[in-house]
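Task 17 of the worksheet. Students: predict the tertiary structure of the chain below and write it out as structure tokens. Keep your answer in the requested format; marks are given for formatting as well as content.
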Amino acid sequence: MPPGYSDIIASLRQSRLAFHFALSDTRARYRRSVLGPFWLALGTAVGVVGMGLLWSELLKVDRATFIPSLTAGLIVWQMLAACITEGTAVFTRQANVIRNLQLPYFLHPMQLVLRNLVNLAHNLLVFVVVAIVLAVPASWSTLLVIPGLVLTVLNLLWMALMLGMLGARFRDVEYALGAVMPLLFVISPVLFRPDYLPFGSTIIWMNPLSHLIDVIRSPLLGVSPPLFVYYTVGGMLLVGWALTLALFNSRRNRIAFWV
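Model answer:
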């Protein structure tokens, strides 16, 4: 069996360890604070209120429609942005662990994604409150949030692994991606939905992160995502994992030297 496949299988067998590390990272970040990780939800709530009041006026959109969409888009974006930007340093920041412990490499991207899933769970509390207060309708389409989240997580895993290897080999990748992320935020449907725009939404859908956002946000709002969103997310999953596995199989043994 190729070394990359063996590494991933070994990591999946130790998924409980990755989840333990993810929880430990979250607890350590908010150690000795009163609210702990719920500061995440509080920060998101403040951002939603401020941006919701401002942008609903600028876009001339009803607040009861705009704020739930903004909340769902923002919490999904925070998870995507954190996994992508931190993914570039997922191996370099674990250099001491990699050099001193014989753990499978894929365990580190898993830990990163799981940690951000924990953060997403806290931020979802904000959406639940908004949904109750503003009476966001629920339907059978809401259940599509489960496959949407699974597809997004599977995509984030290959992204974190790929970016981790590239970031370990070329340290400029971290800074280059940090410069690009604000642009991706602007052309992502976070502050708005594509149908709010007075012009064509083609440029929005050219951004792959837009599809990862909509595959979760639309079900949260009780709406089914367009079929092309699922096609795009599924295509990203297949092509992304194929390229990542090819790179991981050929360069896995060099990661320890890169970090």
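Marker's comment: The chain has a mean pLDDT of 85. The radius of gyration is 19 Å.
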